[in-house]
UniProtKB/TrEMBL annotation:
HAMAP family: PS_decarb_PSD_A
Active site as annotated: 208
GO MF annotation: an example: phosphatidylserine decarboxylase activity
Domain of life: Bacteria
Chain positions with Pyruvic acid (Ser) modification: 208
Pfam families per UniProt: PS_Dcarbxylase
Catalyzed reactions per annotation: a 1,2-diacyl-sn-glycero-3-phospho-L-serine + H(+) = a 1,2-diacyl-sn-glycero-3-phosphoethanolamine + CO2
Biological function: Catalyzes the formation of phosphatidylethanolamine (PtdEtn) from phosphatidylserine (PtdSer).
Protein name: Phosphatidylserine decarboxylase proenzyme
Length: 249
């Protein structure tokens, strides 16, 4: 299915298949499985079974399914699987605003809409770029490991800021934030890379959050509590501002 063109009128072919396991996670899963087999070899079944289930959990955590990415040039797609936990007006992070001395684009220091997505340990943790364009900034900031659902996690936790600029100059910044269990943010890209919308940019190990900073004049198309899918769910349309309401039931 990878690379196939599908549309809203039924063109293309939808197939089911087991998701791939990202290479970053295979070593952990294989190690846990190896320990389980070692325990089983010595007839330590009380230890072998828990390790076997742990290996399955690790493989599931690092799953990397294919996604059908919208090709609308105005769409900002979700960079992460998870639940919308915050939609609020804030000033963008300093790392995405200040001049870095290289004359590269940056975000305005004016308040903008931040959409925050919380990923539990059961969600896919491969992150994707919300727009197509060039990676202008990738800034890693060491920090704490507070609950990623807390508002202050955006400023105090270990995090990595990414700024992507489209060919027309529109920029979208987003931040990968480590959580209570997460201890490492793994990038797949570097400054200067050109990305297609929905392309994989990195992962966060074991529970985390991603903040997206929408361009000026753009409002969210998702609502608090809504579940989103990385590379598929449209978070916003550039230049579009309208109120959407929902009812939980």
């Amino acid at each position: 299915m990878a690379g196939d063109l599908l549309d809203s009128q039924g063109r293309g072919e939808a197939q089911w298949g087991l998701p791939a396991i990202h290479p970053e996670g295979r070593k952990f899963g294989i190690a846990a499985l190896g320990i389980s087999l070692l325990f089983a070899l010595f007839a330590w079944e009380t230890l072998a079974w828990p390790m076997a289930f742990l290996s399955l959990g690790v493989f599931a955590f690092f799953r990397d399914p294919e996604r059908v990415v919208p090709q609308d040039q105005n769409a900002i797609v979700s960079p992460a699987d998870g639940r919308i936990v915050q939609i609020t007006g804030v000033n963008p992070p300093r790392e995405l605003v200040v001049d870095d001395g290289h004359g590269l684009p940056c975000l305005s220091d004016e308040p903008t809409i931040r959409v925050s997505i919380f990923m539990s340990v059961f969600d896919v943790h491969i992150n994707r770029t919300p727009i197509a364009g060039m990676v202008q900034r990738l800034v890693y900031v060491p920090g704490q490991f507070l609950n990623a659902e807390l508002d202050k996690a955006s400023d105090e936790n270990e995090r990595q800021h990414i700024l992507v600029e489209r060919s027309d100059g529109v920029c979208v910044g987003f931040t990968q934030i480590a959580g209570l269990v997460a201890r490492r943010i793994v990038p797949f890209v570097k400054p200067g890379d050109t990305l297609g919308v929905g392309q994989r940019v990195g992962l966060i190990r074991f529970g985390s959050r991603v903040d997206v900073y929408l361009p000026k004049g753009t409002s969210s198309r998702v609502m608090l509590g809504q579940r989103v899918v990385a590379g598929e769910t449209v978070l916003a349309e550039i230049g579009s501002q309208r109120l959407l309401e929902g009812v939980s039931h």
